[in-house]
Write a structure and sequence with these properties.
The protein is α/β, with parallel strands linked by helices. The protein has helices spanning about 45-50, 80-95, 105-115, 145-160, 170-180, 185-195, 220-230, 270-275, 275-290; strands at about 10-15, 15-25, 30-35, 55-60, 100-105, 120-130, 195, 205, 235-240, 260-265.
Length: about 290
C-alpha cells in the first residue's frame, strides 16, 4: 500500500461545537462529502478519497464526538444531530449547489435522511449499510424499561475511563478483532489516525465513550421509510453479504425508495469499502458514471 499524501485539515461550527474535516483539494470540481460511521474517523475514507478526488472536491468530516471534532457536552449523538452537522458543513462549503453524499453505517443513515428532508440539496447518494438494524435486532420492550436502561448506561459511561493500550500494535490487534477482514496495512492506517497518545505513553481511541450509548427510542422504520421516499436523486445502497445488516429486498426497506440501486458485494462484512475496496470503487464509478 503506497504512502498517502494527506489532505488538509479544517474546522467548522455546529451547535457551538468545533468540528473537524479534511479536504482533498480540487475545489473547482463538484463537491462530494464522505461521512464515516460510529466510533470511526474521517481518515477511514482515505483510499476511497484518493480515487474519487480525480473527479470530485472530496471532503470528509469527523462526526461530533469522533476523530478531531469536539465532544458533545451532555453526550448527545443522535442521528438528527449528525444530520444537522452535515447540513452546516454543506452550507459552509457549497450552499447553493447540490452535492454528492457518501456514507457508511451511521454516516449512511445521516446522508439518507439529509437527502430525504432536503432533496434539492443532494445530487446523488451512496449509502453503505445505512438502512438501520434488521428487525431481529430490535427488541420490543416497554418504553419505561428502555428509558431506565438508558439512564443506567449513561451513568455507567460517566464512570468509564477510555481504554489505554500500551502500544500501537496492541490497538491494532483490537482493530483486527473488530474487523478481521482488514489487511495489516489498513489496520495500521486506521489505528494511527484513530488514536491519540496519552501523557503516560499509552494510546486511546479518539471517540467519546458516550457515543456508545443506545437511544431509549426504538429505530422508527416507519419514519425512516417516509423520509427515504422523498429522496429525488439517484441512490446506491451497498451491503456486504457477510454483514448483519439484513436483506433489504425481503424486509421491504428497498420499496421505500423511488429509485434505488442495490449492490451486494461478496465476502464483505459491515465495512464494505474496507473489505472489498476495488469492487466497491467499481460499483461507485459505474453508478456515478465516472
Amino acid at each position: 500500500m503506497a504512502d498517502i499524501i494527506g489532505p488538509t485539515s479544517h474546522f467548522y461550527y455546529s451547535q457551538r461545537l468545533k468540528l473537524h474535516y479534511v479536504d482533498w483539494g480540487n475545489p473547482d470540481k463538484p463537491l462530494a462529502i464522505l461521512l464515516h460511521g460510529g466510533r470511526d474517523h474521517c481518515r477511514s475514507w482515505d483510499f476511497v478519497a484518493l480515487d474519487l478526488r480525480e473527479h470530485f472536491h472530496v471532503v470528509a468530516p469527523d462526526l461530533r464526538g469522533h476523530g478531531d471534532s469536539d465532544w458533545s457536552i451532555g453526550g448527545s449523538y443522535s442521528i438528527t444531530d449528525h444530520v444537522l452537522d452535515l447540513g452546516q458543513l454543506m452550507n459552509a462549503l457549497q450552499p447553493h449547489a447540490p452535492v454528492v453524499l457518501v456514507g457508511h453505517s451511521l454516516g449512511a443513515g445521516a446522508v439518507l435522511q439529509r437527502a430525504g428532508v432536503f432533496p434539492e440539496a443532494v445530487r446523488a447518494v451512496v449509502a453503505i449499510e445505512g438502512l438501520g438494524p434488521p428487525g431481529a435486532m430490535i427488541r420490543e420492550t416497554p418504553a419505561h424499561e428502555r428509558m431506565q436502561h438508558w439512564v443506567i448506561d449513561m451513568l455507567a459511561l460517566a464512570q468509564r475511563r477510555p481504554r489505554e493500550y500500551p502500544s500501537l500494535e496492541a490497538a491494532m490487534a483490537r482493530m483486527h478483532e473488530a474487523n478481521p477482514h482488514l489487511t495489516p496495512q489498513l489496520q495500521r492506517h486506521l489505528t494511527i489516525y484513530g488514536v491519540r497518545r496519552n501523557e503516560n505513553g499509552t494510546y486511546s481511541w479518539k471517540y467519546d465513550n458516550y457515543s456508545r450509548a443506545t437511544s431509549p427510542y426504538l429505530f422508527n422504520l416507519k419514519d425512516a421509510m417516509e423520509i427515504w421516499s422523498r429522496i429525488r436523486c439517484p441512490v446506491l445502497l451497498v451491503r456486504g453479504d457477510a454483514s448483519w445488516a439484513g436483506d433489504w429486498e425481503r424486509d421491504g426497506r428497498l420499496d421505500a425508495f423511488r429509485t434505488a440501486e442495490l449492490a451486494t458485494l461478496a465476502n464483505a462484512g459491515h465495512w464494505v469499502h474496507h473489505d472489498r475496496l476495488g469492487e466497491f470503487l467499481g460499483v461507485v464509478h459505474r453508478f456515478l458514471n465516472l
